[in-house]
Please model this.
Amino acid sequence: MKEYRTVAQIAGPLVFVEKTEPVGYSELVNIVTADGTVKRGQVLDTSDEVVVVQVFETTAGIGRDSGIRFTGETIKMPVGKDMLGRILSGGGKPIDGGPEIVPEKRLEITGAAINPYARASPADFIQTGISTIDGTNTLVRGQKLPIFSGSGLPHNDVALQIARQAKVPGSKEEFAVVFAAMGITREEANYFMADFEKTGALERAVVFLNLADDPAVERIITPRLALTTAEYLAFDLGYHVLVILTDMTNYCEALRQIGAAREEVPGRRGYPGYMYTDLASIYERAGIIKGVKGSVTQIPILTMPGDDITHPIPDLTGYITEGQIVVNRDLHRKGIYPPINVLPSLSRLMNLGIGKGHTREDHKKVSDQLYAAYAEGNDLRGLVAIVGKDALSERDRMFLEFADLFEDRFVRQGLYEDRSIVETLDLGWDLLATLPEEQLVRIDRELIQKYHPKYRKKAQG
Amino acid sequence: MKKSKENGAQGALKRISGPVVTAVGIDAHMYDVVKVGNEELMGEVIKIQGENVIIQVYEDTAGIRPGEPVTNTGLSLAVELGPGLLTSIYDGIQRPLEVLVDKMGNFIERGVSAPGLSHEKKWEFVPTVKAGDVVKAGDILGTVQETNIVHKVMVPPNAKGGKVKKITAGSFTVDETVCTLEDGTAITMLQRWPVRVPRPVKQKLNPDIPLITGQRILDGLFPIAKGGTAAIPGPFGSGKTVTQQQLAKWSDAEIVVYIGCGERGNEMTEVLTEFPELEDPKTGKPLMERTVLIANTSNMPVAAREASVYTGITIAEYFRDMGYDVSLMADSTSRWAEAMREISSRLEEMPGEEGYPAYLAARLSEFYERAGRVINLNGAGGSVSVIGAVSPPGGDFSEPVTQNTLRIVKVFWALDAKLSQRRHFPAINWLNSYSLYLDALTGWYDSEVSPEWNPLRAWAMGVLQKEAELQEIVQLVGSDALPDEEQVTIEVARMIREIFLQQNAYDAVDTFCPMSKQYDMMKAIKFYADLARTAQAGGATPQQVIGVKSKNELVQIKFIKDYEPALAQIRKDMEAEFDAVRAA
Ligand SMILES: Nc1ncnc2c1ncn2[C@@H]1O[C@H](COP(=O)(O)OP(=O)(O)OP(=O)(O)O)[C@@H](O)[C@H]1O
Ligand SMILES: Nc1ncnc2c1ncn2[C@@H]1O[C@H](COP(=O)(O)OP(=O)(O)O)[C@@H](O)[C@H]1O
Ligand SMILES: [Mg+2]
Ligand SMILES: [Mg+2]
Model:
């Protein structure tokens, strides 16, 4: 392989190379520094005059004396059956002291788009045991459902609880877990690893670790390596795979850094204008394919800068993912775990996975009614702060109390409390029963008569 | 597509930067379709700068090198129009996704071309003109039973026409001649039309018939006319897609073109699985049979996303030319605008507002201008209604795409995160939304629904407006401090919101509400309001009036298909309860 020593310029993570023979767009590049270290990069722009290479590691040590080798192929990742149980770096190299991965295949890490015609609609209810998810923001197999959180909030606990408890009722298969860390601290990573080890999840997990002190640009490839692995496990080997990506905010920061180095016209708050498309190339790698056994379910985690859901990172994410689970600081301060605020949370695929034949026929309407009543009660809290409880009508007071009850009994649960969907729905009914029956305007009469505790008791007694 | 061997048809690549590449050594015109690289990826000329020809490529360019060949086809980006469009699902450049699965499996690889229509399938052609008849551009020559929809085979709009020499009934592929004119012109069932050029019409008319959607807040409060334009902006999760899908399902258009432009793969799959199972409420036939889908999801190439909107509207115009009422949904026009921005920034063009190209407003208005109720070339009527979703960053409507869209469209359905968060769906804000067709449609509602409808609508809007004012007071002093009469107004407004405006897309009955039922529901709410007013005039307290239990049953009406007996009973019960109040 020809080696060029024609580096003309180095700016941030970008290396500009001149006078090359024709180099392919997106090609993998090896950069050999004076001390013999080999760093990897990728072609971002290629022409007769200059080739722009984005380096995935620190550019420290790269200079005009470095040798540039164009490999003639795009970045591929070796994948194989023996990946389960392994810990790899954010760049895909084993870091657990074990052997190299025996490749059965080498796959393109960018991953082609699933043809929408080949997709099957996700419809298998995943029971996470968490009421605010199962009851009101149901996750289904093949969905991409991120956790929107803030710094210092227990999103990791929520993600781990999901990973521990997630099951498809009636199916014995356990999820394989692909975990990709991007720029999180060693301590956080250890927290995840310890839990995986304790529960035995590690044996059916593949872990990619790009930690806070690892190169930021490597974060651009970490989720792609993870998803390539997940797709292989799912669509070649037939596993149901749960992918946890954390923290997507760090990924986006790396993207911004590269954009700035390329002197691109920035979009909102300095993030590249193509960030939507770029994030979509990650998040859309979830789903089920007709006639193929496995599935890829994604739970990306991101911390909203300043707890602001309109910040470009959560905003663009929410526009791509199939809903979001929002972890909330106020609930956390009130000491409620999991501090999930259901109001801005959403699962767009919920309707496909609930109801008769999936969970229970009353599921959708119970969920709608819980939302409506909680939203109303929550609004009234603002009013009470101004006019006091006494100025409220009797009806309003009931809704106000409902909101407290909802947070205290429905939202709050233990770190290891695994509620079945029937328990969750019945709990929902118990809370709704504190309201007068005619206030349950979201639910048809028939369902009320079948599931409302008042009638249930009558029917039993 | 034919490859030309003339001089200047073949050149070489000079630079590759993502979806935008530069070629030298070809003579090209703007918007010519070119084949890029050894794999002959499809691209389109978007800029010419001296000898540099700049091309957007519709497929992934990874691995392509400078020096690889570029060939100009000399043709513009065009779609194939003819029998076989209905029930299809295409990518942004009209490659049938079903065919792509056959050719390259479950993932979309590149370098595979596939024509928009099957060139092998035979269709039964039945002439409607005979030898000796004189036909002109746009005239109908015959029909094909495509699905339950009759496909009309027309003289292409750019043809001269003339006297029919020979026209044959029988089974033909789209490439076979079905009609020959005296001057030797051979006409097939296939038309190719460049997507960036609107198909011609004789005349544009003012829309005065509503597109009935079965969605109460739309038909009842903010209707769109057939041939009209509407925008539906909202933050993520507020209901743009569900609303558009509801329109695709239930609107009384004859043909539906649904464009998933830069959105989710699973949403298109949902349409694909659901539509064949659902029946058109008007014809009883599977909804899929009147539908054409275009899916260029967020992870498919951005240049093809840019093209998808044009592909869709051209197909819509083609069915309009047959005389059909077509409705087109584009979800989301913001992703289309972003594709323009992405390409523009690769071209290093001077950015306008928020990095969008300076021609954003022009492109948006050119697109919406292709909607309309028209007299076609053949003298018949037809329409294309266009409904575009807009996805403003952070849900902030002051951004360029929303603002430029609102300058053009006549209907604004403003989605509101506060409403969607409380699961008030459709989360269309009744205070900010508007329809500029209201006046033009008054006559239709008068004659087709009831002369009482327009005043009833005005009454409901008045109550909602009043509620908003009262809420400001309530926020300060609490609801008990309101005058008696106003306390009842608040209750009536709640009924309008919960009974009439809220409509559950996932309830088997409530998902579609015929106009007659909308009228009955609103009339029943007004009936309560009137009884309440009379009772209060007779001295009843707000608590007594609000305490009337039977009115709470009204909300159940939306879940009942044959609701008339139940509604009549509730009206009777309400009267009886008010009688009791008066007696007390
Ligand atoms: N009880 C309700 N039921 C349904 N919709 C409501 C209700 N209350 C308010 N809304 C809707 O929510 C919108 C916003 O309500 P609100 O008046 O609380 O916010 P705002 O004052 O406009 O916004 P902000 O103060 O947050 O800037 C209203 O325009 C109305 O459409
Ligand atoms: N008319 C409706 N009836 C019931 N639910 C709705 C309705 N409109 C929206 N929703 C709910 O809101 C969610 C988000 O809607 P969607 O159309 O996907 O939002 P957007 O396209 O604006 O991001 C849906 O998954 C559904 O749960
Ligand atoms: Mg949407
Ligand atoms: Mg306010």
Observations:
- The pocket of adenosine-5'-triphosphate (ligand 1) is lined by residues B 416, 418-419, 424, 429, 431, 497 (CB under 6 Å).
- Chain B touches chain A through 79 residues (CB under 8 Å).
